[in-house]
Structures are given as structure tokens and as C-alpha cells.
Amino acid sequence: MTEGLEQRILELLRAQGAAEGELTAQSNIIADTSLDSVSVMDLVLELEDEFDVAIPLGRIAEVKTVADLADAIRDLRSAGVQ
Description:
CATH topology: Non-ribosomal Peptide Synthetase Peptidyl Carrier Protein, Chain A
Shape: globular
Number of helices: 4
CATH superfamily: ACP-like
Domain Carrier: 1-77
CATH class: Mainly Alpha
Protein name: Acyl carrier protein
Organism: Albimonas pacifica
InterPro entries: ACP-like_sf, PP-bd_ACP
Helix content: 55-70%
Structural class: mainly alpha
Distance between the termini: 18 Å
Largest sheet: none
Oligomer: single chain
Low-confidence stretches: none
């Protein structure tokens, strides 16, 4: 399930205009993309809608990589945080 989440996050990053180049699950969402903070928040809102979760800002602050974000979404879905 996490791999599917990672792939969807990567697709959405590209749709948000992430820097060209190879993005992977280990890509740093800020350092490895050219996205500004507004674009990152747009991404988070889109992910919340798509996966029917609410991602607390404190949790977002802990997220560094695409894999971290996928893990956070998976954990929130498992916990039933909506």
C-alpha cells in the first residue's frame, strides 16, 4: 500500500511543478523539488482530499521525504484520523 501512496505523491509533486529530474521515495520534498511553501500546502490539501485524512501541521513538520509523507498518510488512515 505504501508503494502506491508514494507513487501517487510523486505524481502529484510532478503535477504541482516539482523540479524536473528523478524524484523517488527518498526525495526530500523541499530540497529536491522547486516547490515553494504554498505549493507544498496545496499538495498536502490535495492528498488530504484524495486519501480522506486530515494531516496535522505538526505531523507535516516532521515529514522530510516522499516516503515519510506516505508513512504519515498510512498511519493516519490506520488510526482512523479524519
